[in-house]
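Researcher: We're teaching a course module on how sequence relates to structure. For the next exercise, students receive a sequence and then see the predicted structure as tokens, so they can try to spot secondary structure elements on their own. Here is the exercise chain.
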Amino acid sequence: MRSVDATQPLSSLFALTNDARILSTQINATAEGLFSDDPAEVAAATQALEELITAEAGNRAALLNKADAWCWVIATLCAQADARRKHAQRLAELAIADERHAQTLKDQLINALQRVDPEATKWDLPSHKLNSRRTQAVVLDPDILPEDLPAAFQRVKTTCAPDKSAIAAALKAGQTVEGARLVERRSWRIA
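Model: And here is the predicted structure for the students to work with:
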């Protein structure tokens, strides 16, 4: 087992947590010397415990500072993600507005060109071409529900999803549900 030197700066959160475990083991092992009948052994154990406790306090402070730094990084990344999400939403809204403006301008352009030649289906401009094609689409009255249409004109979709609330209730009641198990998780929040 390696010894921990609290005077050496430890840079890794994982090294600090490992050192905390090692120090705890060393403290427990050294504390057994306090129950010796030999006063010299008790004195040596007391001295060793003082050193280990000092090292543990230093390691704990370094660990808390390191964990706090990790929280700062996590909070910064979450804030950055939120800002990017809001920026993406703003860009999406701008894109929708641009598409609407483009469609309005396209409609106005076509209306203007059709005044010149109402029968034209294509326009060859100096840098662009306008082409049209015929399409057909079914437009339903917004007041008509799919159920109001004859069965031949309805498309029925069926989906199946697990009822996790019912499964959880059954598992809590001691029932066995094939392929399901109840797990307990802890949720953490950085404040």
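Model: If you want an answer key for the exercise: Residues 51 and 120 are 95 Å apart (CA to CA). The mean pLDDT is 91.
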